[in-house]
Amino acid sequence: MFDDISGRYDFLNRLLSLGIDRGWRKKVRKALSVNNHKRILDVATGTADLAIELSKIKGSVITGIDISAGMLKKGDDKIARAGLNQQIRLQLADSENIPFSDAEFDAVTVAFGVRNFENLQAGLKEMLRVTKPGGHLYILEFSKPKNKLISGLYWFYFKKVLPGVGKLVSSSVNAYSYLPRSVAAFPEGTEFADIVKDCGAKSVLIKPLTFGVSSLYICEK
Question: Counting beta carbons within 10 angstroms of the beta carbon of residue 198, is it exposed (0 to 12), middle (13 to 18) or buried (19 or more)?
């Protein structure tokens, strides 16, 4: 599915989020900067949007992994155009079987990817395994707004507007109808934080973003 939409993925992200997704990624970068993380693994990196944002951290070295070759090809092209080949490296790999040693990274990030894991706990345990003690996972994911008005608008947009626009622009029947289904089914807030703790995190800080449309989870190992 992600291979099929890779060519229009970035354009649709900007269009369908009204550009707000860029601000969310900046918040992830700022959170990493506070903790002075330099060696970073970006899981489910896709077209490398977050990896490129994290490259603004002085001295950072980023490895991005994804199971979609089509998305990685798009990411590699963007990295080359930005002249970031010495700072960012992408490779084909599975989040549930990460090909790196224990405690290899200061931080592990994932933006809008954990809800796509076939086995959520397996993926979280793998990300914690490759994180150094005292390091952090930074998980950016969609959540469900609690305000009734915002929630009503959110689900109308997600279920009625987004699938139609996504299908029209990407020619994919399933990709943008899959999105609201996956968000509705995914655990969030304290429920998700408890799952991360059960997988080995010491603590989880939850930061709702844009009226709770998405959330940033900062998880200490």
Answer: exposed
